[in-house]
Amino acid sequence: MYYEHSHKAGDVVYIFYRNPHTQDVANIQAAAVVNHPENSNELAIFVYENYYPLTNDMAIYSSKEEADEAYDYYYGSFSDGVLE
Question: How much is the average pLDDT of 3-8?
Answer without folding.
Answer: 67
